[in-house]
Specification:
The structure is a single chain. This protein is mainly α. It has eleven helices and no strands. Helix 5 packs across helix 6 and helix 6 packs antiparallel against helix 8. The longest helix has 39 residues. It is globular. The N and C termini lie close together (10 Å).
């Protein structure tokens, strides 16, 4: 079954690439604005041989990784504390619902004002956007805790930290992993967006330079790189999720299928 799915996926990708080659060549769109796939591939090959490209890729991955790590740690800790401290969930609910919908891109002027085009500007936007993904999932996970299991742990004399480790954390972990997987994708989007708009070093800034210099094939090649990064990050996050939840029924059922 997996082989069939992989073959269908490869066929769909090949058809998409062929369509991208044919459409500009038959004149449906101007190749000045949408170059054929072959030209984009040539531009991509040129980028891969350029040391500045790899430096930009490293800058983007640095901002993504640091921002995601900070957001994940903060979201898990804050989510657990809010959930276990009495009345804190109710006291913070309105504040969370007020702050969470604020688009991270709206903070770009603040980031530029505080940190200019430094890495810290990228981190501010990445952490803010990714934090809520992890926090909300952690809150949902803790809320799903079986009260019978919690009371049983109390009856056996388990303290607060022991209950968190052996009862609360296994219950919340599937939700946390979902939040981290979502946050990983959001972190990449905000990292590239920040570089594109602010001009911080990275793939986003390189895309902006290619666009302003009318290097259209290079621009599309860099966009393709960001798409491949997103794909790899999603595949990697799912792999980590399956490993971390190998004991969970959902993953065991998926493996059985």
């Amino acid at each position: 079954m997996r082989g069939v799915n992989a073959a269908l996926g490869a066929a769909g990708l090949a058809a998409f690439l062929a369509l991208g080659e044919v459409v500009p060549r038959v004149g449906l769109v101007k190749d000045d604005y949408f170059p054929p796939t072959s030209r984009i591939a040539d531009a991509l090959g040129g980028e891969l041989t350029d040391g500045a490209f790899w430096s930009a890729l490293g800058d983007t991955l640095t901002g993504w990784a640091l921002g995601l790590a900070i957001a994940a740690c903060a979201g898990i800790v804050v989510g657990v504390v809010i959930s276990v401290v009495p009345y804190l969930r109710e006291a913070t609910a309105s504040t969370i619902e007020f702050l969470r919908p604020i688009p991270s891109v709206a903070l770009i002027p603040l980031a530029v004002l505080l940190y200019g085009t430094e890495l810290r500007s990228v981190l501010l936007l990445v952490v803010y956007a990714s934090f809520w993904q992890v926090l909300i999932q952690t809150l949902y996970g803790v809320q799903d805790l079986d009260p019978v299991a919690d009371e049983t742990a109390r009856s056996y004399g388990l303290g607060t930290w022991a209950r968190i480790r052996h009862v609360l954390w296994p219950t919340a972990l599937p939700y946390v992993m979902t939040g981290v997987r979502l946050a990983a994708a959001v972190a990449l989007i905000l990292a590239v967006t920040a570089e594109l708009v602010i001009g911080a070093p990275g793939l986003g800034a390189r895309i902006a330079v290619a666009q302003t210099s009318q290097a259209v094939p290079d621009m599309y090649a860099l966009v393709v790189v960001t798409g491949l990064l997103g794909l790899l990050i999603n595949v990697g996050a799912r792999s980590v999720e399956r490993r971390a939840l190998a004991w969970h029924q959902s993953v065991r059922g998926e493996v059985a299928v």
